[in-house]
Amino acid sequence: MCASTIVTISEERGQAGILGVAALLAALAVWATARATFLAHPHWLAVQKADLVLGPVLVGLYWWRARPASRFGPVLIAYGLVNAVYIAQSSSRPGLFGLGIAWESVIYLGNQVLIVTFPTGRVNGLAAKLVLAGSAVVAALNLWLVAMLPHTGAGGAISGCRGACPRNGLAVVPDTARALDLLDPFTDAVIVVALATAVLLLWRFVRGTPPQRRALAIGMPVALLFLGCQIAFLTLSRFEVDAPHASNILQWTYTFARSAVWYGFLLALVAAQLHAGGVVRRLLRLTLRHPSRGELEAMLRGPLDDPTFQLRFWDPRAGAWDGPVEAPPGSATTIVEGPRTSSVALVHDRELTDEPELLQAAGAVALLAADSADLGSAWRDALTALQRSRVRGVEAINEERRRVASNLHDGVQQRLVAIRLRLAATGRIVQDEALQARLERIGVAVDDAIEEVREASHELYPRQLVRQGLVRALEDALAPVPVWHDGLGRHEATVEAAVYYCVLEAVHNAAKHGGPDVWVSVSLHEDDGALTFEVVDDGRGFDVPAATDGMGLQSMRDRMEGVGGGLSIASSRGRTVVSGSAPRGGRPSPGSAEPAPH
What we know:
- The strands form 2 sheets. The protein has a 5-stranded mixed sheet. Strands 2-1-4-3 form a 4-stranded antiparallel sheet.
- The protein is of the alpha+beta class.
- Helix content is 64%, strand content 9%.
């Protein structure tokens, strides 16, 4: 992290320094050119020369920040800084003026490099190399002409002088006649190179892949406008066409078209960023459908215009990719890092390398979809684990209830019965009437204890529920409340126990809050493999969300959810309905018998 921070600070300082130098040079261009009264349009030229420096530098800095791995940003910056020498043409000193005239060759060649290498900053293909070689020949020929002409004007569209221009201090081999003989072939060469450059751009667009055409769609038309103006302007000059009005319009159009070149490149980059943002928005909507890996790849192929696109995800547990990341011929691999240890490798068309923001957007969406799928899977696993845990808890509670109830019935209750029998036998052989009466009172107390133990064991886990099922157990526990059913079969012990205790709790609540005269109805049904119950009473009702007796209601919900079911409570004055449902399960409880007919 520290090294990355240092690099970032260093880059920030470097970019700020470049911008400061460019701003100073632009200010110098305005100051020097606006004072050059021998120029035909000094103030317009001041703006143009300032823009020749500051415009490419600003666009290049933005490009550099947006696409740090691209060469095109540094190429733009270098071009803008190199153009600063052109300020010398605003000087009346022969040496500086001649340097400014000669520097137009460098500006011309740099402009060609920008157009041919857009948007990668690289010279790709033999045709591009031939065009730049022709451009270099034209630039060299222009330098040769400058070296032969002691008196020459500026060659730019609005760079002419009001009258005679300053002497050319770089005319080291003066030969005006020969220079004039070479002027027409030189103009023809410039026109041919401009035509070749335009054909190259059109050929790239027509033959390019969808990503290439998308990148060229904005920058290329602006470059073609500049090349068209250059061809038209030079053609009028070459054939000495007498059309002063058209020539004047063309001069200014040509001037602005040259500046429009790098701003066209800026618009192309902004359009690419907006396209990437639009892709993200569309894909985020699609990821809400939780696509599979294959569906996600198909989703991304459309916006990327790449039918060969593939995804590879890093598996941190295996320490490897889940598929080959080696790019086949014509393709490239881009790795997008996510938070923590998540990463995705995009195997894509090589031309997409020049649209890193689009690749980053696709990678971010892929990681988001993968994380969402992982979270969804983890959430489902957690729910399943929770459900299993709750089922185990319910089973454990029911088993403990059965154990304690069995111990009470088979242990405590039987011992109390034995004590009662011994008391009765002792009472029969005792002659003392007072002692007999005392033993009789103790026997009655033991009988009460036996009854209480029996009731306690029944409430803990009624044997009737295990032996004869839910209907018979509820009938015994709720009499005289009727229990309506449709010929219920047996269910898993945990399901029967959950329904049994929920029904008892609901009836108890109805009697507690509705009074002795409340009417209560209990019904049981089997519906689509689920066991459902409904307890209805005509009591005064209650506000369910604000119910203070939360322990009973929550206990009922916990019981039903613990067996994979649910509980619903609706209450109003004169009618309260407690209903629940649980999966049938399909396994009879251990020791169960066939249900008794009802």
